[in-house]
Amino acid sequence: HKEMAARGLAPGARLLEARLVPAPEKAAARLQLPVGTRVLYIRRLLLANGEPVAYDRKYLRYDRGKPILENELQYQAFPEIVEKHAAALPMSSRMVLRVTVLGEEEARILNVAAGTPAFLVEQSLLSGDGRPVGWGWCLYRGDRYELVSAPEAI
Question: DSSP class of residue 55?
């Protein structure tokens, strides 16, 4: 969202799905939970000037004492949501960037042709004690997105 705003685009998000699901094998492994543990699964469409630019899917450890409100999912970034609902702070994030092409469902959601190049950003969120609290991946349209690093001191 911050990078879109910096480029003069109006950022937005549309919540497609948020429900408790049994953790599938890969998500359970990433979150260090037994397969089938109830986790929160979120699918969101990230927008720039109302146009879809990214398709975001995440699994979060579910804390029944801190229900996540739908409006938070609509307007807050993933790390902010997790930080608000995680027991142990501070948080750290690890991201892995890959290049991929969009499959049929992903392309339809992003309003482009299947096979369109995209950035795939896999993200893991860890609590201050190193416990994984969130994992997921976001597909950014290759024709609408560029990743720019922040300037660093040399």
Answer: E
